[in-house]
Specification:
about 150 residues, mainly alpha, about 0% strand
C-alpha cells in the first residue's frame, strides 16, 4: 500500500491525490513535524489525532488508525519537498493556511519550540505557497488558542 502511494507521490508529474490519500499525506506531514525535534511526544500524537478528528470528522478510533498509518508512511516517505508537493496539489490555496495552522498546533503541543521544527514549517510553508508572514500569523493564532 505505502510503496504504491510513495511511487505515485514521487512521480515526475503526480496525479492529484484522492481524499483518502490527501488525508494520509497531511497526517504524515503532521507526524514529520512532530518528529522533527527527535522526540515524538505522546502529547503531539494526541494533538495530531484531535486535528484529524476535527478536520475529517473521524471517530477517535479512526483518528488513531490514520495517525498510525501516517507514522509508517512518514518513516518511508521521501524528502519533505516531494511530500509537501503532493499536499499542495491536493489542497486548494485558501485551505493551505489551515495546514500550516495544524503544523503549528503540533509544534506547540509539547510546550517546546525547536529550531528543527521551525525549519520544517518554514520549508513546508514555502512549498505550499504560504508566506513567512502568513505562517507567523498562523503561529500566533494557534498560540492564542492554546
Amino acid at each position: 500500500m505505502f510503496a504504491d502511494f510513495l511511487k505515485r507521490l514521487t512521480a515526475p508529474a503526480p496525479d492529484t491525490l484522492n481524499t483518502t490519500d490527501a488525508r494520509l499525506a497531511l497526517t504524515a506531514l503532521l507526524v514529520r513535524i512532530a518528529r522533527a525535534d527527535g522526540v515524538f511526544d505522546p502529547t503531539e500524537a494526541a494533538r495530531i489525532e484531535r486535528i484529524v478528528t476535527g478536520r475529517y470528522d473521524l471517530s477517535p478510533f479512526e483518528a488513531t488508525a490514520l495517525r498510525k498509518e501516517a507514522e509508517t508512511l512518514e518513516a518511508e516517505a521521501p524528502d519533505t519537498v516531494r511530500f509537501t508537493r503532493a499536499i499542495k496539489d491536493a489542497v486548494p490555496l485558501d485551505a493551505r493556511i489551515e495546514v500550516i495552522e495544524a503544523m503549528w498546533q503540533v509544534v506547540q503541543a509539547d510546550g517546546e519550540r525547536d529550531a528543527e521544527e521551525d525549519s520544517v514549517i518554514r520549508l513546508a510553508a514555502n512549498l505550499l505557497g504560504i508566506s513567512d508572514r502568513d505562517s507567523a500569523l498562523a503561529r500566533q493564532r494557534m498560540a492564542a488558542q492554546a
